[in-house]
Amino acid sequence: MIIDAHQHFWQIDRGVTDWIDDSISGIRRDYFPTHLAPYLDHLNVDKTVLVQAAETVSENDFMLSLAEQAPFIGAIVAWLDLSDPTAPQTLKELAQHPVIKGVRPVLQGIEDPEWILQHNVMESLRLLPELGLRFDALIQPRHLPSIDKLAWAIPTLPIVIDHAAKPIIRGGTDLSDDWRQGMAKLAKHPQMHCKISGLATEFGPGWSADTLKPTVDHLITCFGPSRLMWGSDWPVLELDGSYSQWFTCLQHMISDLGPNEQADILGQTAARFYGI
Questions:
Q1: What is the DSSP-derived secondary structure letter of residue 81?
Q2: Residue 55 buriedness (CB in 10 A; 0-12 / 13-18 / 19+)
Q3: Which of 8, 23, 87, 125 would you label with 37, given CA atoms 20 to 30 Å apart?
């Protein structure tokens, strides 16, 4: 099974995706399952993980409605303000939908890198394991220490790092020691997983298998294939490349691994983590 562990859909006139501004006007249009399906069919991708693209609870209903229309959606990662007093009850309601497998606050947009460690947020996160939900961490390198603290505090919480914590690699910038050491430290937690996604966008124009391989090699060294999963980050990916280009690039970067290890990264890790 091949699983795209990270993709989005949005409808511009819903008025909830203000982050799609003039700087990324190239993707300021509607993206629905009918737009993604041809790529999945062409590349034999079996399932996807649909991740929230707006910070509103209405986003969850929007994604659920799409999942009813598109059988290839194997899991949904919902949005929720984990600091809200009603978050525990909302989590219980979300868990009633079998296709909702996790939640994701947009940590990269929160100024305080330790927001996630607030008492009320942590109390909400402690509910996830018993509800059968996972935590997607949309973070930047500045968040690595707080996610390490989170993993120590709640060792039963399944965590996946989105976009490899967005390493600063724009235009070929060398990987920082802080990112290298921070990711290695996170990987020591057994419940920690990582997505090989979003790297083309972080690099920008000129990305290739050769330019991105040092990043992917470090992830493989730290996490091993059994805790890594690939994701397209489509349609954000379209700012700097195509779905087919990224999939082919990923396959090239892991071609020196054994068949079972490649199968983990291409789908089996995501299947286990999200219960697909």
A1: -
A2: middle
A3: 23
| Amino acid identity at 127 | L
Q: Give me the count of residues in the chain.
A: 276
CB burial class (10 A; 0-12, 13-18, 19+) of residue 80?
buried
CA angle 166, 171, 177 (to 5 degrees): 50
What tokens were used for 237? 């990916």
Cis peptide before 129 (omega within 30 of 0): no
| CATH of span 3-274 | 3.20.20.140
* Edge-to-edge strand ranges of the sheet holding 134-137: 3-7, 47-51, 73-78, 100-103, 134-137, 159-161, 192-196, 228-230
Between CA 117 and CA 181 the distance in angstroms is 21
- Hey, what are 26's tokens? 């190239």
Q: Taking a C-beta distance cutoff of 8 angstroms, is the pair 146, 137 a contact?
A: no
3-class DSSP state of 237: helix
Domain locations in the chain as residue ranges: 3-274
Report yes or no: 273 and 134 within 8 Å, Cβ to Cβ. Answer: yes
- In whole angstroms, how far apart are CA 161 and each of 6, 8, 128? 11, 16, 16
In this prediction, residue 120 has a pLDDT band, given cuts at 50, 70 and 90, of very high
Q: What's the CA angle centered on 243, arms 179 and 101, to 5 degrees?
A: 65
pLDDT one-digit tens code per residue, 175-191: 999 999 999 999 999 99
Burial 193-223 (b: 16+ CB within 10 A, else e): bbbbbbbbbbbeeebeeebbbebbebbbebb
The predicted structure's pLDDT at residue 77: 98
Which residue shows structure tokens 């809200």?
84
pLDDT at 163: 98
